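Before our next group meeting I need something from you. Please put the record directly below this note.
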Amino acid sequence: MTDSNHRHSEYPIDPLFLNRWAPRAFDGQPMPKADFLTILDAAHWAPSSGNGQPWRFVYALRGTDGFDDAVGLLMDGNQVWAGNASALVFVISHAKRKSRDGTLVDNATHAFDSGAAWMAAALQAKLMGYETHGMAGIHKDRIAEHYGIPADYAVNMAFVVGKYGHKETLPKPLREREVQSTRKALAEVAFEGSFTAD
């Protein structure tokens, strides 16, 4: 059993998994580009079906011309706080793959594989002293149009990276939610030899 970051695991996992969380309070400072690219480098080493590596990352760094435009592609509730992060990343995946005969066919695992890449980014960021927060609240059609993303690619999610700030900078309703979340008991999600629906 591991205790860390106001969390408690049932088995002795590495504290990294408990220390990673998704805050909304960021300090509003830029980050070195080399640090950010290190995080993306870790992400692109994630496992994928057939080593297809379907993930693609479109990013904007605080202090560059594209950052405010990128923040504007988030839903309003996320714009309120995500604009204080150091970097914003849209995770896109190729929904097709080449078959053995060279034709494009559906890639059933493109989003799953890209999720593995996002987790790798989140863990690498934490190891470097940064925080991340993933978001589904994005305008997918507008993102695709803004960045010229072809129809056979899927916009999956976005995440921000930055140093933790002060929760007092958040609007009151978000300030109250700025706590480390818990998880369901392992027995509620892991079943030996059978399946139990919620």
Summary: The mean pLDDT is 96. The CA atoms of residues 85 and 162 lie 5 Å apart.
